[in-house]
Amino acid sequence: MARRNDHSHEEIRDMALAAAEQIIVEQGSDGLTARKVASEIGYTVGTLYLVFANLDDLIMHINARTLDRLHQLMTDGETPNRIEKDRLIQLGQIYIHFAHSDPHRWALIFEHRPSDDRPTPDWYIEKAMRVFAVVEETLQPLAPRRTKSELSQAACALWAGIHGICILGITQKLGDVGEDSVQELAKSLMVNYLSGFSNNQA
Asked: What pLDDT digit, counting tens, does each position of 44-66 carry?
């Protein structure tokens, strides 16, 4: 293993992100501290903060990696002959399975609130919006007469519904139900929403 001073800033960054993600997976976000991350990679907290501005910055980069992973899952294996409605349902299934299989990292995206008032960086917003863009692009052929604004609004509304069902399922607010039941509820929402959105066009 390389000595500590043999690592570049980029290597320390990657090591810290990997260590922080493992802590979150095992202990949840409440278990994440800068001291734990630094200890895991064999560096001081001061060195960690030469790479990340603060713990909020570290968490934002963790969330960015989670969003990249989700986007990759949602765009992998796309087939041009797939019916768009089926593709949308599949996207919902991918999202719900992702949340159930990696709940701590998924939840951190929505639960983390920075301790300062600095605006969210554009690079992070772009990563978050890519998920909605996949939904919007798949939705467009189902309602070709809808405007860009209507499609964007529909994508946000539809995904907000899927996300809500997902949260209620994971937190057991729907009773003692498993992932399969959550998937069925989400599918019902999507089928009915898409029916109305596709048919009620000007």
From this structure: 999 999 999 999 999 999 999 99
Sequence-distant (6+) residues with CB within 8 A of 144 are none
Residue with tokens 């992100």: 17
Which tokens sit at 121?
């960086």
The confidence score (pLDDT) of residue 1 equals 42
Q: CATH number of the domain at 57-199, please?
A: 1.10.357.10
- For the stretch 64-81, pLDDT in tens is 999 999 999 999 865 555
CA-based max dimension of the chain: 66
Which CATH number is associated with domain 1-52? 1.10.10.60
**Is the pTM for the entire model greater than 0.90?**
no
What's the rounded Cα separation, in Å, for the pair 94 and 89? 9
